[in-house]
Amino acid sequence: MDSIDDILGELPLPPYVTAEDVTFAVKAVTVHAAEQWPDGPRCRNDRAPHPCRLHRWGRRVLMERGLSQREIESLVAEQTARQP
User: Fold this and answer.
1) Whole-Å CA distances, 68 to 32, 53, 57, 65, 75
2) Which residues in the chain come in under a pLDDT of 70?
3) pTM of the full predicted structure?
4) How many whole angstroms from its chain centre is CA 22?
5) Do residues 58 and 23 make contact, with C-beta atoms less than 8 angstroms apart?
6) Separation CA 24–CA 38 (nearest Å)
7) Which of 41, 35, 30, 20 shows the shortest CA–CA distance to 72?
8) Burial class (CB in 10 A: 0-12, 13-18, 19+), 46
9) Which of 17, 23, 33, 73 lies at 20 to 30 Å from 81 by C-alpha?
10) pLDDT for position 36
11) Residue 73 is inside which H or E element, if any?
12) pLDDT at res. 58
């Protein structure tokens, strides 16, 4: 974890995961995807060590909604393919 993660901790999950939360979570996981750097994987959006806080939050929300790791990967791949 990055030092800022040590200070701020994890983003809290919503009390009830709604369809809107799922939409935000998919966006977070897609936008904050890994990108290879010389010192290891970093977040494509904010260059924090991957997985960054928003990527982890998005995965936790999707898992809370009942998606498996495989389903999350499939969803991310589908969303990434749709981006121009």
Assistant:
1) 19, 19, 15, 9, 11
2) 1-3, 83-84
3) 0.84
4) 11
5) no
6) 30
7) 30
8) middle
9) 17
10) 93
11) helix 69-82
12) 96
Look at residue 51 and give its three-state secondary structure.
Answer: coil
23 membership: H or E segment, kind and range: helix 19-31
Contact 43, 51 (CB under 8 A): yes
| Prior bond of 51 cis (ω within 30°) | yes
* Domain regions of the chain by residue span: 3-82
| Contact yes or no for 2/48 (Cβ under 8 A) | yes
Instruction: For residue 17, count other CB atoms closer than 10 A to its CB.
Output: 17
Place of tokens 């924090």: 48
Where b means 16+ CB within 10 Å and e means fewer, 52-80 reads bbbbbbbbbbbbeeebeeeebeebbeeee
